[in-house]
Amino acid sequence: WLVILFVIYFGQNFIKSEWLDVLSPFWLIVFAIAIHIVLFVLAVIPFWTEIKQGIRKIARNFKLTIRYMLRLFTIMIVLMFIATYISYGITDKLTSVNQENIESLPMYITIPLAVIWAPFVEEGVFRGGIRKIIKHKLLFIIVSGVLFGFLHAIEEATLGVAIATSLPYIAIGMVFANSYARTNNLAVNILFHLLYNSLAVLVSTLK
């Protein structure tokens, strides 16, 4: 299942738009929905027992979990600020193509994708899945963070811009990976990812 998950998740980013031009708008929507459902199932089902156990741990240690997430959020914001400053200095742009594409979608699509789908699928792929392959903590954090960053900047015009634009996402990915390596609790990562994306969506609506 892990191979299938990686092939579908990473492969979808290399499907060229002209390959899909043969599909009518209706079948294009069906195709997109099918891919998202398959990825959700592949990313969640294998970790379902772990996620349920993690939820119980959160419930038993709710106050500690909230304090931990606040520390995590503070660290993430600081690293993101530094990475964004460096990225802006190189590219002279504050928003990635990925972010622009998300913000261009209707809210009834953005909210399910960003707040529900992405936290489960991305944590399953970049944390749960990669951790099963890479046992070394530091190597896992680096690989998970870099892949997470580049997948969020793959649509940039040039490789140089993609590398620079990926820096804030790499920072986020490494924080998430470090959290999973320390807690071994995917539910904590999913919850924090969900809250972070919810805040990001809220901020984007206020622009």
What can you tell me about this protein's structure?
With 207 residues, the chain is mostly helical. It has helices at residues 2-11, 25-44, 48-60, 62-91, 97-104, 107-133, 137-151, 159-183, 186-205.
Topology:
Layout: H1 2-11, H2 25-44, H3 48-60, H4 62-91, H5 97-104, H6 107-133, H7 137-151, H8 159-183, H9 186-205
Notable characteristics:
single chain; mainly alpha; 207 residues
Give a brief description.
Helices cover 81% and strands 0% of the residues. The protein has helices at 2-11, 25-44, 48-60, 62-91, 97-104, 107-133, 137-151, 159-183, 186-205.
Q: How much helicity do the residues have?
A: over 70%
Structural class: mainly alpha
Q: H/E element string?
A: HHHHHHHHH
* Distance linking N and C termini: 40 Å
Mean of pLDDT:
89
List the total number of helices.
Answer: 9
Report the sheet with the most strands, covering strand number, pairing sense and barrel closure: none
Which spans have pLDDT < 50 for at least 5 consecutive residues? none
Strand elements, count: 0
General shape: globular
Radius of gyration: 17 Å
The proportion of residues in beta strands is under 5%
